[in-house]
Amino acid sequence: MSAGPPPAAYDPTTVADQLRELLAEVTGRADLLAIPAETELFAAGVGLDSLAGTLLLRRIKRRYAVDVAAEDLNLDALQTLGTLAEFIAARAARG
Amino acid sequence: MTSTAAGPGPVLKCIVWDIDNTLLDGIYLESPDQPPQADPELTAVLRELAGRGILQALASRNPPEAAAWVQQATGLEFAAAECGWGSKAESIGRIAAELGLELESFAFVDDDMLERAEVAAALPDVLVLTPEDAAEAPGWPQFSPRVITAEARRRSDLYAERRRRQAAAAAFGGSRDDFLRQAGTRITIGRAALADAPRLHELSVRTHQLNSVGEPIAATELASLISSPGHVVATVTLADNFGDDGLVGAAIMTGKASAVMTAPAIMMSCRALGRGALDALLAWLCRTAASTGATEIQVPCLVTERNVPMRLALAAAGLRAEPGAAAAGGRALFARSVAGELPALAGWVTDRDAP
Questions:
Q1: ipTM score here?
Q2: Which end of chain A is less congested by CB atoms within 10 angstroms, N or C?
Q3: d(CA B130, nearest CA chain A) in Å
Q4: Residue A85, pLDDT score
């Protein structure tokens, strides 16, 4: 086996920036690129519904190999942009 | 292995057809001035299956004009068409994603043995057929839904409307609620009528992504629940300026006049995904439970990879389960209080039972 590139380091701030892009992609809303980390994802702030939520979780699984739905029965990780970034950063770093 | 046996299995939802020497009696590009006519036998099969509510789609290595010609020659509007040089397996995958359907509900028909072999190898869940097999398909159980509802008969039209809606939503750029308002979304929720039982049974069989139960519910059982004074069976209808989807969802609630109301079944067509209908139903259930004097609502929900959209809606509506509770039979009990502030019904939602 040849040595591949070193595993990318994930910190919550970087992940949060990447998540803003994913959110803007799955919703088609450019205004989500600028939301603060404490913005609630389900409530009025982002208004994440079943469709956008499913698309987001699929992108997260592909990009970070973190299956949020499998690890978090209540999907509490989706409370805010910041909690989701921390959830992913903690697990992506492990892999 | 190419699966052609007409053995028992679930009823299929979509058939993807090749064009050259399958739906057309000849090769489209070889006769540009006068393209080949539609095969009369398979055209009859197409119409018969479309009438049973099974979607028809095209996958071809021809240019898109070939799909337009097939629509004209057969007189049938296809739910999706993938034309290009990519593999047919990829085309089928894109059609499944566009229609929001699982691959195991697909059949693929092609006269070319290599194309069939490629799809069978890449997509083992897809039923792969020769045109000769397809000619007999209407007699097979996989193509014979027991009940054909009004929604089923116009399913192809509904998917065509959905394509136009999705294109408009992608170009919109505002929030989902702003789009729903601009699209003239109209949702009604209220008690089911006895005549709804066959459609509710069909929903229990066909829905997976937005289904809390994961098992069919018999029409006779649904009919007795609808007539039962101890139960609330609610139905959801959905329409907007793009089209009328009819009855798209339902829920069953028990425990009237007790402190805890339980919704043992919530199910909704994936056509309603992203259109506020499930959020509206969950809000209606909370409000109905509160109005009968309950202080809590409980939703036992199967936890699978497929129904993550259902769990997202439960989470968005404020329902939570005990962590680690999913062990017993893959089900978890989601609950929330309905004693305090209740989720609001959006402006485009009508409560049919409201006085």
A1: 0.88
A2: N
A3: 34
A4: 97
